[in-house]
From TrEMBL:
<feature type="domain" description="Senescence">
    <location>
        <begin position="253"/>
        <end position="356"/>
    </location>
</feature>
<dbReference type="GO" id="GO:0051301">
    <property type="term" value="P:cell division"/>
</dbReference>
<feature type="compositionally biased region" description="Pro residues">
    <location>
        <begin position="406"/>
        <end position="422"/>
    </location>
</feature>
<dbReference type="InterPro" id="IPR009686">
    <property type="entry name" value="Senescence/spartin_C"/>
</dbReference>
<feature type="compositionally biased region" description="Low complexity">
    <location>
        <begin position="423"/>
        <end position="435"/>
    </location>
</feature>
<feature type="domain" description="Senescence">
    <location>
        <begin position="452"/>
        <end position="522"/>
    </location>
</feature>
<dbReference type="InterPro" id="IPR045036">
    <property type="entry name" value="Spartin-like"/>
</dbReference>
<feature type="region of interest" description="Disordered">
    <location>
        <begin position="350"/>
        <end position="444"/>
    </location>
</feature>
<dbReference type="Pfam" id="PF06911">
    <property type="entry name" value="Senescence"/>
</dbReference>
<dbReference type="GO" id="GO:0005886">
    <property type="term" value="C:plasma membrane"/>
</dbReference>
<protein>
    <recommendedName>
        <fullName>Senescence domain-containing protein</fullName>
    </recommendedName>
</protein>
Amino acid sequence: MSDASVPANILLAVPEATLRTQSTPTAGTVYLQYLSVTTPPESVPVASEANRSVYLVVRLNDVEFPIDPSRPIARHITPDGTHVYTFTLDGPAAQSLGLKGDSVPISLSLMGLPDPARKDAIETFDQILGQYAGWEGVSGDVQQPTGLNMQEDAGKPADLRGRLVLMDESTGEMVGEVPNQLPIHEDPALEGIDKTEGAKDVAHAAPVVLELPPDLYDAYTGQQPSEAESVAAAELSEAREIFVRAVPPEQQDWIMKSASLVSRGIDSSTSLLVRGMSSASQYYIKHSTPYSPNTPDGKRVPPSRMATLLTHPTTHTALGYAHTASGHAARVSAKTVELVQGMISRAMSARSKTATSAPPQPVCPAPVGSPTSTPNLAPVVPYSTYPLPSSEKPPLPPRRDGSKSPAPPLPPRSPSKSPAPLPASHSPPSNAAAGPSPPPLPLRTRDRLALSANLVLAAVDESTTRLLDAGTAQLGVVVGHRYGPGVARSTTLAAGTARNVVLVYVDVRGFARRAIIKRVGKEFVKGRVASFRTRRQSPLRRNNTVWNYMSSGNPTRK
């Protein structure tokens, strides 16, 4: 295979990295690249429409090696914040680096520094590797970054409990609150998961998924609901509730990492970015006095205190750095989403080929929470019932699942390998009614990617980014008209840092949890309407006992 047929793209570059092999350690900037490789024709099934696969490659100075997607990566964080990744190379890959052995470990260390841009780059590095190959063990010995320390005893007001707040991801400072007048129902499993993870001692809070009604989701993200998904106003008013679903411990890392863009798309300027912002800014410019440093009598007017602050060179430097860091994160995240989209398309393509032997499962309302007596919340299967967006890339062949056999040289993949069949739970219907279904099998990577499709791609829309950029530009024009170009530049830079704002849900116990928003479908809303009407006919609030209703209509005592 010639080099010209394997175009490489740099996903991420992180300086001050150290690569350790059997020889002398190598230090420098590490580049994470991906290659789009053409699969040999003899290894592609006749019915398959895809003939290209994606591989990740690590390069540091003269050392370059592909990452085998079937070999999980060991990950560790030292007390000083250094991230250490251990890759296992097979014989051919090790020989290409002059190393001996059939299974050779090679470690990569990324030093932790108090730099917001670097922290974001390392987080993105984790995101890419975790979705490509996965981590050894359930969660490894990595400190999960999904919980924020904002308990009741940390000085936060108690009235924030059960509220959605906006927090600066780099500093932990609360920068705003998302207004909502809807009742919020928590999954009772949240407390159980926290106890399992030791949250009582380490102040760790599990992340959550917020299931929003369609109109509320569109209001938060600045999107317009489609006519095909609109629901009657009377029904929608009955179903306007927010459900907070717990994320199982074994799924916290990949769900939160893959959906990192969702929370970034929400910022404190949502009200400014709604429709009509351009005409409103033009109206203000036409009906207000433009900026002028002099008065009509020729005397120079001293600048206001705010203008002095925004035009100070130190302010420009600080805002420029923050804006650059935000833009870097957005560009990297956009490429990462493209890579994840390709993997999800590949997984869905494999699932569709095997679905011909099994009847389609009915689409039904998805339960929001599992009973508290179930300690291990297994696969979040309801997420896979919702359709994928129509703007996907062409499907790619499924990546190899884990195998104990030696991995072939990368790239390309060995022609003898073929996608593994789906678990036995996807058997024909004749076996489905024979008795109780077997316990769920552990999720493989391609199944996890398929289940996360609606969490990642259905909620991430380019229109959110375009609205953010458009709102920033209009705000800069208005401020520049009133206070001058210096203030306008600082305003534009400050608005650009909104990409660092994340959505946080403060639960009833005072724990702040990283939140993902999810737009529920039309059938899901209908299920809630039926549940709401049943609840209205048979109220279950007795003796000051509060019952939480999940989407299935079954009450859960809290």
